[in-house]
Design goal:
Shape: globular
Distance between the termini: 33 Å
Structural class: mainly beta
Helix content: under 10%
CATH superfamily: TolB, C-terminal domain
Length: 399
């Protein structure tokens, strides 16, 4: 954020500035037991999973190998279970990659309804319905021409989605142009989860993070499985769409495809970037602390002694980076990585790993790249990809 003018554009995009100390151990509660055969809807079932790693592999034996280049400002990559990868260009297009080749025709083009001002606005998130192969439904999160957030359903047939099939589920007013969040993911319960930022500006001036009556600064949980529109799951903790709160800008969220645990990369304000965690089976209602806390560090006014907070499993300060990019738990063919959550930083190109060590979390810097990392992705086989602001996609592979 300090030196390079081109970085400023996308740093604003990803919200703010934040960072954590590598190799930090943060106490964590043990997740409830989940069957080792569990897999998220719409993904391949891992029938004979190997145990999670207890040590990090030697990163010098691995590299990020380019898969596709010459795309435009990438924000998300998802798989539909068919062998295809779908990558979002921020200006409003979704492109298909199959067998390592980029299709010349977009899967979806909604550039006519996107506001992409060069900062944090644009086409930001994608999720395929667990029954996509039957119903063709998928969901996107974007900022419209007025700057508001739209979460909408579209329908596809084959390699083409019809822009005219848009069904808007949520239209959320945005008071400022930054901190839009944008991530979408289906959980192991079949519900759609959405990450929304606090509405923007700086320091959460409207107090949205701690206000459970607004959708801003939250993780939402929606039931989209009963016809058009959505319903609120009966066990949502506040009787609304809100599932968890106290977030500043949860740019990327993801579920471990084997265990169903939820990981949240929340971009910080002045000093700290954080990874938050909810174990599978969580009843929700967690308060991640913003803006009382930035990471696990006091930030604004002192909270009530009756407040309970869920602190990060990993964090880094701005000596190490400026804008956290949440990633995925590795569940692919390189079993030595099994159970490692990989995430990065936009400004520095660093990539960290997080693994559980008994009752604690172990966090370690693994790769120093020269990428402007904007997102990560995962295919149906559990392999992990890295996306850049320069329009390139890389896959983690052995050298």
């Amino acid at each position: 954020m300090k030196h390079i003018l081109t970085l400023l554009v996308f740093i604003l995009v990803f919200s703010g500035c934040s960072a954590p100390p590598p190799s930090t151990l943060v106490p964590a509660s043990v997740a409830p037991a989940v069957s080792s055969q569990t897999a998220l809807p719409g993904t391949s079932t891992l029938t004979a999973p190997t145990p999670n790693t207890t040590t990090f592999p030697d990163p010098s034996a691995y590299t990020w190998q380019v898969l596709v280049s010459h795309l435009q400002r990438l924000t998300d990559l998802k798989a539909d279970g068919s062998g295809r990868l779908f990558v979002i260009e921020k200006n409003g297009r979704i492109r298909i990659i199959q067998n390592g080749q980029l299709s010349p025709n977009p899967f979806l083009d909604i550039t006519d309804r996107i506001k992409d001002s060069g900062n944090e606005q644009g086409l930001l998130g994608l999720a395929f319905h667990p029954s996509f192969s039957q119903n063709g439904y998928f969901y996107v999160n974007y900022t419209g021409q007025g700057g508001d957030t739209f979460i909408s359903r579209f329908q596809a047939s084959g390699d083409k989605a019809d822009p005219n099939t848009e069904l808007n589920l949520l239209h959320i007013k945005q008071p400022f142009p930054n901190h839009n969040g944008g991530s979408l993911a289906f959980g192991p319960d079949g519900y759609l989860y959405a990450g929304l930022g606090d509405g923007g500006s700086a320091n959460d001036p409207l107090g949205n993070g701690q206000n459970t009556k607004t959708l801003l600064g939250k993780i939402l949980r929606l039931d989209v499985n009963h016809g058009d529109s959505y319903t609120i799951p009966a066990d949502n903790p506040f009787g609304s769409e809100v599932w968890a709160y106290g977030l500043r800008n949860p740019w990327r969220i993801s579920f471990d495809k084997l265990t169903g645990d939820l990981y949240i990369g929340d971009v910080g304000q002045d000093t700290w970037e954080e990874i938050d965690f909810l174990p599978a089976g969580s009843p929700g209602g967690n308060n991640f602390g913003w803006n009382y806390f930035e990471g696990s560090h006091p930030f604004a006014s002192k909270p009530s002694v009756t407040d309970h907070f869920t602190y990060p499993i990993a964090q880094y300060n701005h000596d190490k980076g400026c804008s956290i990019i949440g990633g995925y738990v590795y569940r692919g063919s390189m079993t030595e990585w099994n159970g490692t959550y990989l995430y990065g930083d936009y400004c520095t190109g660093k990539v960290w790993g997080v693994i559980r060590s008994g009752e604690k979390w172990q966090n370690k810097l693994l790769f120093q790249t020269n990428f402007q990392i904007t997102s990560f992705g995962q295919d149906a086989n559990g392999e992990i990809y890295l996306l850049t602001d320069d329009g390139e996609i890389y896959q983690l592979v052995r050298k």
